[in-house]
Amino acid sequence: MKITQIAGFLGCGKTTLLLELSRRLAGEKERKVALVVNEIGEIPVDGKIIEESGMQVKDIGGGCICCEVASTFAKTLYRLYKDFGPDLVLVEPTGVAVPHQVKLAARMGGRDAKISMGPAIVLFDATRSAELMNMDMLGQLVTTQVKDADIIAISKIDAVSEAEVQDAEQRVQQVNAKAAVVRLSSFTEEGVDQLADNLLAWKE
Ligand SMILES: Nc1nc2c(ncn2[C@@H]2O[C@H](COP(=O)(O)OP(=O)(O)OP(=O)(O)O)[C@@H](O)[C@H]2O)c(=O)[nH]1
Ligand SMILES: [Mg+2]
Prior knowledge:
The chain is 40% helix and 20% strand.
């Protein structure tokens, strides 16, 4: 069971990508997939509809899975592993979660050798690239999210110019030169297959 988080600041496109990725991974890639969401965002995750396609959905409320409810998160992962046995778990933390803390919390639930950590995929919203790391208070949080990323997805590229995509790429590379950077639009589906393949190929 491989646990992969789709992280990034509020409204950057996490849920939209989560649904696109899970559709592919459970569909043509034929993996058994579970989703863990930490907060219902703008696009409601309709657990019932998703479960009809054979996936399991767990919604954890009451706080952030990287801090207040980290132990609930860990237990949820372990239960999924024992009761459902998915190949892949896709996790959507809240927009203010810190990816390395989400990883730490996930590891608490996964000391078993058959549980591994997938990449932290961090979305960086191309439509807000100039402001994101410069916001009062929260700019530092976004910078930490980008630093923590294993893969950075420049999201919503359908809504901006080529110059703006390049601007976003430069900003994230200044903070994290190691992570792979993928151009993503969940609307046109550019980059979604690449992220699915990266996630499947990922080794800790
Ligand atoms: N143009 C464009 N808009 C997108 C794309 N993906 C998501 N959006 C829009 O961005 C908004 C937020 O998308 P969500 O997927 O809910 O983002 P989120 O990161 O899950 O949001 P929170 O969970 O509230 O932090 C919605 O209005 C989406 O329709 C994209 O690829 N292109
Ligand atoms: Mg969301």
